[in-house]
Amino acid sequence: MQRVVICKPATRKMHIANGYGLSVYELALLNEAGVPPWYGAVKHILKVVNGIKVDAPSQKSREHHATTQCHNCWAPKSEAKLFLCAQCKAAKYCSKECQKAAWTEHKVHCKVAAASREQIDTSTKKIQPFGHVPDLPTSPSELASILQGWTNKHRPLLARSLVHALDLHRDPKAHITKALFVMVDWVSLEKPTAQRFKVVSAVVQEFTSIPGCAGGGIADTRRNLDAVQRGKGGYGVAMMIIMCVSCTPPALNVAPVYLHKGVDKEPVDARWLDVLTAKLG
């Protein structure tokens, strides 16, 4: 993705185009960045890009979900010493036995995640922040690592939001073609990982319509993981995609969520987005 070069026109006003309430200039910026004008966070992104003052990060207290667990037996880090999978650097296990037991289910996602991490680690491109974000990492691998850590800290709430957003009770196959796309902003100043980003918007999208990432590849990964999960008696696998919109190219973290049998029979909370933004926005 190319860097967005912002060349503000003189004081003349741009006319509104295409029914989205955006000027031709704004539509051009979004097109260059690969962001469709119908996304919920578009106005917020354009405010940041154009240097308009936005709300300061919320100082209210919130829950910090530090549920780092073994990816096989789900033992929390408070009860066992965990180690990372050497290949993907994402999955954690409490023992070699658990790692071996989880390998059949993990190997597909592991290979994809490892390849993606290698691509990020070897990238020579620098992150270009939108607006004044002095402490945003310019290294793609550093930013991706922080975003992954933030996702892990809040995985229970994000997974809950994904399940409610898909509304499997109404559409039992929604997880096959759709993902929860969560847009977050970088929060400056000294912050722990759990507070490093804030949610600005979230929406369910078809895999192939997700900007800035290989939607088809994500769908293929989900399909392989889904087959393993269903073979073990589960409902399947859904995907959530966390994108930092404070920079270009945007940083992405794609995380699978394993759905238990009967999840489509559970009541849906239509206020899932309000809950998500209240806690993490």
TrEMBL record:
It comes from the Eukaryota. The keyword Zinc-finger applies. SUPFAM superfamilies: HIT/MYND zinc finger-like. InterPro entries: Znf_MYND. Keywords: Metal-binding, Zinc, Zinc-finger. GO terms for molecular function: zinc ion binding. PROSITE patterns: ZF_MYND_2 (PS50865). It holds the Pfam family zf-MYND. Coiled coil: none annotated. Residues 70-110 form the MYND-type domain. This is MYND-type domain-containing protein. It comes from Auricularia subglabra (strain TFB-10046 / SS5) (White-rot fungus).
